Amino acid sequence: MEKYIDTYSSKDKLISKVNSVIVKYSNTLNRLNEEYLVSKDREILKRIREVRAERNKIPSRIRTGIRIRYVRYADD
Predict the structure, then answer these.
(1) DSSP secondary structure string, 38-67?
(2) Which of 44, 65, 68, 74 could hold 15 in an S-S bridge, CB 3.0 to 4.6 Å?
(3) What is the span of the domain harbouring residue 36?
(4) Cα dist from 28 to 10, 42, 54, whole Å
(5) What pLDDT digit, counting tens, does each position of 16-36 carry?
(6) In a domain, 74, yes or no
(7) pLDDT-based confidence at residue 9 (cuts at 50, 70, 90)
(8) Is there a domain that residue 69 lies in?
(9) Which pLDDT score is estimated for 76?
(10) Separation between Cα atoms, residue 48 and residue 54, nearest integer Å
(11) Buried b (16+ CB within 10 A) or exposed e, 12-39
């Protein structure tokens, strides 16, 4: 198992990172929410719903590697 883990497991400590597109959508949502609180405009509310729907289609993390662990359990 150690040979398998050494061969296929990523050497980097981080195996995923935040998707930068999600950050852009979140920043847009924050700005729109602040605008909506001030103006209470229904068009802004529609735009918030659209941006949320688009953001929910995208994965929040980007996988950059894999981590393999071996756990062995014993019966009592």
Answers:
(1) HH--HHHHHHHHHHHHHHHTS-SEEE----
(2) 65
(3) 2-63
(4) 34, 17, 12
(5) 788 888 889 899 999 999 989
(6) no
(7) confident
(8) no
(9) 62
(10) 10
(11) eeeeeeeeeebeebeeeeeebeeebeee
The three-state secondary structure class of 16 is: strand
pTM exceeds 0.70 for this model = no
pLDDT for residue 11 is more than 80: no
What is the tally of structural domains in the chain? 1
Residue type, 76: D
User: Residue 27 falls within a domain, yes or no?
Assistant: yes
CA-wise closest residue to 22 among 49, 65, 48, 54: 54
* Identity of the amino acid at 33: N
